[in-house]
Amino acid sequence: MFRLSRRENSTKGAVNISLRSIVAPRLISPRRASAELALCVLSWAASFASMKIAVGEISPFLAVWFRILFGLLVIIPAAIYRGDCGRPFRDEVIPFLTLAFLGVAFHQNLQFTAMRSAGVANSNWMIAGTPAFVALLSWIFLKEKLNRLAIAGLVISGLGVLLILGLGTQNPEGAANRGFGDFMIAVSAVNWGVFQILSRRMLKNHSPAFSILWVNLFAMIMQSTLIFFIAPQTFSGLLDVSVRGWCSVIFLGCVCSGLCYLLWYDGLSALPATGASVFMLLQPIFGALVAYFLTGERFTVFSYVGGALTLMGIWMVNNRNSSEGAG
Predict the structure, then answer these.
(1) Among 198, 189, 146, which residue's Cα sits nearest to residue 165?
(2) What share of the chain is helix, strand, coil (3-state, %, to 5)?
(3) Three-state SS letters, 264-321
(4) At what angle do helices 120-127 and 148-167 cross, to 10 degrees?
(5) 29: left (phi > 0), else alpha (psi -120 to 50), else beta?
(6) If DSSP codes are grouped into helix, strand and coil, which group holds residue 90?
(7) What per-residue string of b and e applies to 173-210 under the rule 16 or more CB within 10 Å gives b?
(8) How far is the C-alpha of 5 from the C-alpha of 216, rounded, in Å?
(9) Mean pLDDT by 10 residues, the chain (327 residues)
(10) Which of 11, 272, 291 is nearest to 127 (CA)?
(11) How many CB atoms lie within 10 A of CB 37?
(12) How many CB atoms lie within 10 A of CB 273?
């Protein structure tokens, strides 16, 4: 149940409950939910290729700023329409700031910087291992139980990620896509797992639209401070950005950061978690196809083996509750 936001009514002496505290997620059909989740996964699969295009023309810090800005252009009207645009309580400011740093500011700056050298397909495969990181962190910090199937899945998916990280794809010239950027993407996957663990409590107290709104607003303040006061030189060359570069940034903001997060949580409201996890398994496959056609990456046998191990491990982790015995 969402936490109530109250304000005193001087005339009636009653307590008014804001719309954001009583508006439940939209009730949609499973078919529509599946379509929304599929759209999200397809968009996120293309996000790494779009990031690579964007950072080829502008600074990663500025690209992140534009992504947050364009995302808010979608999130703010949606939050207003749903009645989810109230203010967080005073004791929630620090938690929201923490989530904004981990889930948006740090996470996206890390990924955009990484995509200067990281492989697109490699990045999608490594991000696909996030559910395994979430399960591991939940076991360590939340004391959630893991059975033998889940433990085996963690090991297998970890081996798959390491195989991709070490021997992943090749660029169009035939050289291996291995570098510090790939390591940074792996770090971002772990960071995203931490963010998901920390955001669980916030999503219990507030609607997803409200949480997404304030996380991005605080992240915008952080990123604006970075580029306007600490690194203003990031604006150099902005007038030379091509139409392709602007389309990439707009797609990342409006679709990947704005529309998709709203649709994803709507879809989760109508489908079980295991059903939603199936769509996440499709992201690296779509991402590999995007990498092939948009950036010309080529795959080695290690890409297929590592990808198969990663997907198998994630499937085992996601299905841990359906098997018997606790580890």
Answers:
(1) 189
(2) 75, 5, 25
(3) HHHHHCCCCHHHHHHHHHHHHHHHHHHHHHHHCCECCHHHHHHHHHHHHHHHHHHCHH
(4) 170
(5) beta
(6) helix
(7) eeebbbeebbebbbebbbbbbbbbbbbeebeebbbbbb
(8) 20
(9) 38 36 54 86 91 94 96 95 90 95 96 89 75 74 76 81 64 55 84 83 83 96 93 84 95 96 81 63 77 73 78 74 39
(10) 291
(11) 24
(12) 9
Residue tagged 């609607």 (tokens): 207
Strands 6-8 and 15-17: antiparallel
Cα gap 267→151, rounded to integer Å: 28
Position 323 scores a pLDDT of 38
What is the DSSP secondary-structure string of 103-115? IIIIHHHHHHHHT
| Domain positions in the chain | 29-322
CB 37 within 8 A of CB 263: yes
The kind and range of the H/E element at 8 are strand 6-8
**C-beta separation of 212 from 261 below 8 A:** yes
Question: What pLDDT score was predicted for residue 274?
Answer: 54
DSSP 154-169: HHHHHHHHHHHHHH--
Q: Are 43 and 260 spatial neighbours (Cβ–Cβ below 8 Å)?
A: yes
